[in-house]
Amino acid sequence: MGELKKVRTTCRSCHGGCGVIAHVKDGRLVKVEGDPESPISHGTLCSKCLAMTQLVYHPDRILHPMKKGRSGWERIGWDEALDTVIEKFNQVIDEFGAESIVIGQGTGRDYESHLYRFANQLGTPNVLTAGHMCYVSRVGATLITCGNLPVADWGGRPQCIVMWGCNPQWTNPDEHKGVDFWRAYKQGAKLIVIDPRRGFLAKKADLWLQLRPGTDGALALGFLRVIIEEDLFDQEFTANHVNGWEVFRQMVMDQTLDRIEEITWVNKDLIRRAARLYAQTKPAALQWGVPTEQTNNCTDCTRLLTGLMALTGNLDAPGGNAFFVPPPVRSVSAFSRHKDLSAEQRQKRLGGDQYKLASRVAMISPKAAWDAILTGEPYPLKAGLLCGTNPVITRAKAGEAYAALKKLGFLAVIDFFLTPTAELADVFLPAGTWLEQNHVADNWKRHGYVLARQKAVEVEECWQDHKIFMELGKRMGQEWWDTVEDALDYLLEPSGLTWEEFKEKGWLKGEQKYYKYKENGFSTPTGKVELYSTVLEKWGHDPLPKYTEVPESPVSSPELIEKYPYILNAGLRTPTFFHSANRQIPWLREIRPDPIVEIHPDTAQKHGVQDGDWIHIESPRGRIKQRAKLNDGIDPRVIVAEHGWWFPEIKDEGHGWDVSNINILTDNDPRTLDPVMASTNLRACLCNITPCREQ
Fold first, then answer.
1. What residue ranges define each of the domains in the chain, with the CATH number in brackets?
2. Which residues of the chain are under the pLDDT cut of 50?
3. How deeply is 488 buried, as exposed, middle or buried, from its count of CB atoms within 10 A (0-12, 13-18, 19+)?
4. The predicted structure's pLDDT at residue 695
5. Does pTM top 0.90 for this prediction?
6. Assuming Cys at both sites, which of 277, 497, 510, 618 could form a disulfide with 502, CB separation 3.0 to 4.6 Å?
């Protein structure tokens, strides 16, 4: 028997960052445990990471490249797989131009630097990510508002915490993890929870604001109205560091709490109490979640929440929302060689003229991609490469996503399993898990850290994503390094460390300094927090943030209420799954065997539904089924459903992609999207429920 080896590394089962000690025996992973020396997770791990032995060695995992032939999938070698992709890409470039190739990724998985470097040198402006409605949209909106992303400073001992549409112990928060929040809470911080659903944190909160799904921007205006009306704002800050203070102030004062209560369903006295608690308790940290971004109010809501941080003196303050100083390594942007994409090619970015903020952060909306494939307008997409993403399950109006990818002339997919999206591909490139890679992890985040992710095992012919992009790029004549580790040396060069030295060190942290704006101002055109945005004004948009009613609601769509009387709040999170991932992992599926939709007991009684029954959920776009769970902690007018569901155990090509997939019900009509970021309304639409007779 071989010796047991322990490898210190960094998880990437969700957005990643948690420290892990991998136990390896005879070259095989036998277990993982939390690393108590991790500055991010402090020895804690979630269920997704603890189940990694079942993912790495899952019998359905694809361990070698494959190509789809007349009789289905056939095993091939890496040379043939890469050459097939390159040959097709070169054909498309010669006939249609590089812009007719789309490169896509899922949520932040630490290969963004390599994916964008490949796309930029390829010459395509069409990069499809989840960022239009997750995190990058938040980064984009804060960049034009205050010059950087404000991150909750849990280590600064906040005395008040606003948990706005986020449950960091169950979900996959960016930057810091749930353990840091919980430490701050246990130290005595007051807790305000804003959530349509009474979950674990709402039960712990000093104040719980149960808002109508999708009305976060209106509630933020309510907070601001109280803070300004009662002179609870930082007068020195507003006088010296806010652009457009007087017009912003007047806009807010034009709102009434009676109107905000009507919109949000939150009692105005409760809004007043919460706003006072946040403004008067110093310091205070606000942690936001993706529900604030996954609506047509994405950009404006982010700007309003940034305004709350700024006006109360909590911006770049210890224990508030800080701008963390990055460690001395090359950023994703620097590594990605965005300058290699010519101005001529950038102008061809799909939807670029319409969604200027999305274009500024170098991405396109899914709708623009699907339209280009299905209609050929404004020009056709002919080929694609998707890495670690499953848009058939995770993007709005899933039926359209499925139809588009099925029609695409050539598709290559990088993944672990044959997902519903991967089944539509022509070439499958097997990815290595985070336990099978070397990388400088978390270098896209804004918490001030980079972390060493060391390879613990090698499994068959699987390659880490970074190597796949490098080898494809070299075959296209692009500029890359000989090895993954050589590229990491370049990324680490400003720190003076090589990869070999960095992996022994484990992590780097930037030297933090607060209140940087007092010396340097904010990184905006005016040098101030732009509550009146000169950038949006230049683009022809309203420079003041506002609330816009969600496109499909009892207010905006009264004609639909008779047929679809309930608000569907989609995206209920669990601690077991990361979006559409992990449905085939036995330990995790045992915890959550079926898709769950939560309904109020009164609503269930009205429809003759018992706890545990399968029910149909229907919207104007389609119908799916999930299993009912009764919950008196939601409004009887609201239905709360899980997302990300497909069924690996269904062995046909689609794997049941349309059975319980909540995105069958969501919409991506361009008229319903955020006007500058193209964020889709994944969190709020109208629906109805009926008992499901067939099981």
1. 66-135+332-486+495-509 (3.40.50.740), 150-322+516-538 (3.40.228.10), 558-691 (2.40.40.20)
2. none
3. buried
4. 59
5. yes
6. 497
